[in-house]
Amino acid sequence: MKWTALLKDIKEKVGLTPIQSNNDSSTSPSSHSRYLNSAEGVGISSAESSSQFAGQSSDSSYERGKYDSEFDFKRFWEEFRSSSYEKEKEVSLNMAVDIFCRLVKQQADVARLVNTLVETHIFSFVIGRAFVTDIEKLRIHSKEKSLHIANVMDFFSDSTKNGISPGSNLLCAVEALVSAPIDKQPLLDSGILSCLIYLLNVFLNPDDTDHGQFHNASNSRENISLKKDENTTKLKQLEVEGTIVHIMKALANHSSAALCLIENDSLQLLFQMVTTGSCSVFSRLKNGHIPLHTIQLYRHAMQILSLLLVNDNGNTAKYIQKHHLIKFLLMAVKDFNSDDCDPAYTMGIVDLIMECVELSYRPGA
Predict the structure, then answer these.
(1) Within 13 Å of residue 231, how many CA atoms lie on the same side as its CB?
(2) Which of 53, 56, 304, 355 is deepest in the core (most CB within 10 A)?
(3) Rounded distance, CA 321 to CA 251, Å?
(4) Alpha carbon of 193 to those of 38, 50, 167, 257, 312: distances in Å?
(5) 102-156 tens-digit pLDDT
(6) Which residues lie in Low complexity bias regions (predicted)?
(7) What is the full DSSP assignment across 216-261?
C-alpha cells in the first residue's frame, strides 16, 4: 500500500491541510528508544531524574507515564505521516498503534483520547486499511491464495523483536474505535467489514490440516507440550473470535454498513454462511464432528446479518434481488428436517426473509 498517496487522498476528503513536518523531530534517533523506555514504564532517562521523582506518589508517576506515552504516540504518528519510505511508515505505525492500545487500557473515555491525540477520521481510516492490507497479504502469500486459520492465528499472535504484536494491536485498536461514540464511516470506508466477514468464514470453516496436528508426536513429553500449546492456541482463538464478532456487530449497526458490502461478494458470502448453519452444521454437531462453539459462531453470523438488514435504508434491496439471496434463505427453510435442523435457528432464517422483504419498502430501495 502507498501510504503517502492514501493519506493525501483522505486528507483532501475531510478538508484537512497537510501538516508541515519538523525534520529534526521526525528523524530523531531517540524516538524509538523513548518508546521502549515508556513501554517498560520508565519514562525517565537519567539517574538524576529518577532521584528527583523518587518521593512522588504513584498517581504522579502514572500521570507522567501517560504524558510520555501520549507524546511518543504523536511523535510516531507524525513520523508515519511524514516519512516517504514504506518500511519506516510501517514501523512508525506499529509503534503508534502499540502506544494507543496501552493508552486505551488506561482511560475509559476513548473518544476523548482519540480526539486529543489525532484526527479521528484519518486515524480510523488508516487503522482499518492497515488491518485489511495485512490480512490481504496473508491471502496473497499462501500457496492457494486463500486464508488459513493457522496463518490468521499466527498474525494475531506473533510479536516483533521489540515485543510488539502488530496483528493483535490492530484488532485492539479497531475494537476501541468501534466501542467509542465516534463516526464509524471511516472504518467502513476502509473495507474492514468485508475483511472481517472473510475472517469469520475462516473460523467457521477451518482447514482440515489444522485438526489433529498435535497428535502425531511419538514422544510422550512432546505430546504433553504440544497439548499445552494447543490449549493456549484455542484460548487465543476464542479471544480473537469474540473480538471480531463484537467489532462486526458494532459496525453492522451503521446505516451504510450493508451498502459497503455490495462492492464485492462479502454480503453474498454472509448469506451463504447463515444458510449453511441451518441443517448441515447441526447434523455434524449431533455426530460429534464439530464443537458447540461453532454453532454459536453461526448464530452470531445470523445476528450480524440481521443487524445489517434492519439498519439498511433499502439501498441493498436491488442487490439482494439481483443475486437471488432470498432464495438461499428459502431453500434453508424448505430443507428443514426436525432430525437434523434446529427449529430456533430456522425461525431466525424466517425472520431474515421478512427483513429482506421489508427492505423493498424503505426509502432507499
Answers:
(1) 5
(2) 304
(3) 23
(4) 33, 47, 16, 8, 15
(5) 999 988 788 999 999 999 999 999 999 999 999 999 999 988 888 999 999 999 9
(6) 21-33, 45-60
(7) --SSHHHHHHHHHHHHHHHHHHHHHHHHHHHHHHHHHTSTTTTGGG
